[in-house]
């Protein structure tokens, strides 16, 4: 049954601010994933170059990684809600510019159209460098401590729901409404996110935060805490390397267009499949949390992710490919719940922004830099070989981590949550 009973499975959703937070987070996820999918497909249709898809990840990762540590410092020392509002406004403005570019300038200058897409992705990366640490560090303050494990599962479930709806809707939006119609939808959803943020009260800066310390001292303190706390360092490192080498999301347009030949609608299904698997698993995890023997479960989940990725690389059947992607999402969701719970219960309140920002560097490196790695590998090794090599590297790395982290198998994460 786990450390809470079935009757408490919906406890976190009883808190209005948490409901507003997860609603906004879901809309934000849907909006950015619609934009990501349609822009990737647009660029691939124009260039037919997998490296151009990899550059999308690079355009977002470079500004995000450059700023997210500073974003964590500001999240610990400033009004988190205001940071989210300002940076979200910048994302909305850049999406409006992209809509103008796609409707007014595309036919006149195709190269400018492509460059404007990369520029907007760059701006979104800059904005997320501050938005993400503020949002992540605000989340734990919206529910009591004893409810957070349940809240983390629901937050991940709603995020995965957005990850299903975003790509699924994107393929059909692009096919029937074009790039402009898709972008209008994105802007409307982002305005909905802003409304949700307004429903959350401002939170004071934790009293232990030292306002007069230098920003460099603050950043070093956050980084040092992550590296000395093995359960945090190892869990986020596992996620980094598994997705960096084993992730295939960035090159799905190549599979949809050239290998499986299913077009934009098929791309939407492929892109949504991992999140369908994640949501199904998340619903199960609400009732049966994976925190007993947490480290063992994390290792097995990452290994399963690598195996499912290998099957996807070998598949030439659309529905087998969808199934393999379904299981990548299912295994990854177990990792997400364990990792979020570890971050919540092994991080002091006054350092949440900085620790969240370090985690953000790892996540962005795995996702966006992983997208770049996927594009480069597909360009030089071929699309299918690059996926098989990446899955193999993931399996080797998770085996090495399992061997070198034996002390973490005895860590009682479930007992820590119950304290």
TrEMBL record:
PROSITE patterns the UniProt entry points to: MFS (PS50850)
Q: Which residues cross the membrane?
A: 20-39, 51-71, 83-100, 112-131, 173-198, 231-256, 268-288, 295-312, 380-403
Species of origin reads Aquirufa esocilacus
**Domain of life of the organism in this record?**
Bacteria
Q: What is this protein called?
A: MFS transporter
* Keyword entries, A-Z: Cell membrane, Membrane, Transmembrane, Transmembrane helix, Transport
Q: Which membrane topology describes this protein?
A: Multi-pass membrane protein
UniProt-annotated location(s): Cell membrane
- Record's Pfam families? MFS_3
Q: Domain Major facilitator superfamily (MFS) profile spans what residues?
A: 12-409
Q: What is its main location?
A: membrane
């Amino acid at each position: 049954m786990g450390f809470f009973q079935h009757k408490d499975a919906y406890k976190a959703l009883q808190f209005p601010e948490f409901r507003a937070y997860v609603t906004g987070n879901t809309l934000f996820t849907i909006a950015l994933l619609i934009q990501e999918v349609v822009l990737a497909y647009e660029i691939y249709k124009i260039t037919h170059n997998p490296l151009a898809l990899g550059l999308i990840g690079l355009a977002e990762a470079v500004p995000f990684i450059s700023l997210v540590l500073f974003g964590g410092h500001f999240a610990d020392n400033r009004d988190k809600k205001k940071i989210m509002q300002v940076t979200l406004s910048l994302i909305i403005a850049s999406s409006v510019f992209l809509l103008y570019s796609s409707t007014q300038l595309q036919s006149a200058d195709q190269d400018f159209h492509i460059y404007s897409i990369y520029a907007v992705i760059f701006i979104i990366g800059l904005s997320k460098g501050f938005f993400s640490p503020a949002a992540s560090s605000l989340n734990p303050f919206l529910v009591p401590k004893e409810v957070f494990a349940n809240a983390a599962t629901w937050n991940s479930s709603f995020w995965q729901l957005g990850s299903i709806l975003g790509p699924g809707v994107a393929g059909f939006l692009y096919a029937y409404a074009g790039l402009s119609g898709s972008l209008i939808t994105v802007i409307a959803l982002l305005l909905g996110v802003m409304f949700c943020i307004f429903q959350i009260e401002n939170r004071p800066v934790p009293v232990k935060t030292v306002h007069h310390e230098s920003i460099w001292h603050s950043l070093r303190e956050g980084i040092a805490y992550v590296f000395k706390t093995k359960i945090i360092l190892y869990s986020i490192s596992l996620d980094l390397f598994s997705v960096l080498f084993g992730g295939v999301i960035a090159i799905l347009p190549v599979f949809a267009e050239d290998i499986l030949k299913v077009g934009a609608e098929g791309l939407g299904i492929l892109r949504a499949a991992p999140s369908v698997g994640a949501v199904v698993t998340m619903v199960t995890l609400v009732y049966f949390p994976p925190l007993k023997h947490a480290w063992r479960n994390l290792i097995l989940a990452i290994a399963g992710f690598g195996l499912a990725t290998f099957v996807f690389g070998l598949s030439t059947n659309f529905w087998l490919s969808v199934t393999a992607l379904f299981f990548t999402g299912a295994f990854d969701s177990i990792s997400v719940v364990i990792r979020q719970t570890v971050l919540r219960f092994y991080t002091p309140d006054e350092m949440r922004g900085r620790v969240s920002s370090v985690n953000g560097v790892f996540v962005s490196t795995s996702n966006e830099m992983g997208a770049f790695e996927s594009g480069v590998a597909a360009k030089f090794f071929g699309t299918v070989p690059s996926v098989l090599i990446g899955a193999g590297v993931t399996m080797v790395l998770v085996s090495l981590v399992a061997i070198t982290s034996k002390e973490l198998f005895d860590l009682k994460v479930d007992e820590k949550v119950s304290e």
